[in-house]
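Reopening this one. Same input as before:
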Amino acid sequence: MAQHQINLIGRSGYSEQPVQAGNIHYRRLADLPDTVPVFPLSGALLLPGGRLPLNVFEPRYLQMIDRAMASERIVGMIQPAFDGASRSDGEPEIVNVGCLGRLTSLSETGDGRYLVALQGICRFRVAEELAVKTPFRQCRISPFVADLEEDRSGADVDRAALLHAFRSYLEANDLEADWRSVSRADNAMLVNALSMMAPYGPAEKQALLEAPDLKTRADTLVALTEMALARDDDEFGSSLQ
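Same output, byte for byte:
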């Protein structure tokens, strides 16, 4: 069976400067907009400092990218509600917490699509979804300003448990990692990169996003991985009976 390698830095694109996105530093609330276009996308996880590539093809989101590029270059990534609830116009309701990202690169494909990259700035809470005439949705937000500061809980992360869970996941799925890049990664880079790479469902991704600090996110990621591995073992055992 062919093996696939995971390069921690390359796959996650996680930056060591969580308050800088592209050429811009974000240090305080005044540096952030209070209204942003939002991109509801199930299973997509952007974290502060992370880099999320997107293939944009729907006309309304192409317009959203054009508008963002012409202004502050900021888009809010957010997930649709998990219960499948819809608004009166048929659009899905959205969860309460997302992450702001700055558009740091854009390329045109020649067939009408954009390939873009967002670099995470900080999380936000939806204060109000606005009634707008644009084809894309917009929200008034309350940013998590604390995300612009250093998360000192990184020193409390159980790095050994995190790496053990990561290694077990790789072995169970016949994957390899660039362990040189893993060893160079600090705890913040490691936790957030692995969270963005994790192949879990929308609810689990949201739990990782909403974790109050880095240590809690690391503990959540370890727990999710251990549950996934235990479930796979149970399924394998059942198939043998």
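So the earlier flakiness isn't reproducible anymore. For the record, The longest strand covers residues 114-129.
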